[in-house]
Amino acid sequence: MGKAIVISCFAGLGKTTVAKKYQNVYDLQTSAFRRDPSIKVKNYEKQKGFDSNITNPDFPQNYLDALKDARTKYNIVLVTMAHDIRELLEQNDIPFFFS
């Protein structure tokens, strides 16, 4: 597989729902990458709305690595519309679309 199309979407537009419905679409959620890995979460969907003041020192490099990997495995990768993520895409010459 080649390099997936990256689509940057606002929260609540159904990234997770679409990714669950189509096998070639991946929702690369940022919460798990931003959060300190020592914080364990039972309900990931609830965690998405929770901002921990304890951040992962590997962020954003861990997210970038996961994005590069996902682009080789899926046709479409959905990412958040967060400003820091869009900047990360631009700084690393990763083309993306807005939704």
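the 2nd protein, sequnce then structure:
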Amino acid sequence: MATRHRRPNRGLARRTARKAAAPLYRLLHPRKPAFTCPICNYQGPFRDKRDRRHAKCPSCGALERTRLLFAVLSPLLESFSPERKRVLHIAPEAQLDEWLRGRFGHYVSGDLQRMDVNARVDIQHLPFPDATFDLVVASHVLEYPEDDRKAIAEVQRVLRADGIAALPVPLMHFRTRDLPARDATTRVMHEPGLDYFQRMEANFAQVHLHRSDEVNPAHQPFIHAPTDKTPPLLVHQPNVRLDVVPICLTKP
């Protein structure tokens, strides 16, 4: 069974302060390009994050990958009957947690380490019966478990017959590299490449890949960072790379 936790309000003060400071950031950076966050509707320049330009919404804190995932999921979920659907969100992003929790009648957030979730779960051994959920979201999670194939199979197992899984991973190479031991810096066990989606195709009837250049560019879903080590198929422009959201379907 999943271990249930009381969800503390950690981070609420930080999120409130960030939202209040966003207009000031916009005022202080009039020459930076302006974008629109699809999650919180902030309009203005985005913050840089390390070597990534225009990465972070100064209002809600959503990163490129979170805005892209939101932009991909939003139209897919329009046909869902919220009160009847069950959602599992693993390693939940605060911005998507708030959105999904407010939209669906049954929402479970889970993580192996964090305490600000509903349940402590290991994605390799999900403590839920078969066919429990209509939607599973696990963004940038599969690179961490030792047996990522088992994790993908577990996500498929807990989905209902017409279920959807959103399983983005960081694309680091042309071909996936499985590490002999956990990386001491990044803590990953797998460095996904462009062939990584084949592992999802082994478990799901359909896997659809949604790219940054397929959504509204005003949401800034691209990664603005050096592309010298980026697989050529992911280079959108010099120093601008694409990201990809795989949407996995259990139904043919």
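Residues 74 and 233 are 26 Å apart (CA to CA). Residues 12-28 form the longest helix (17 residues).
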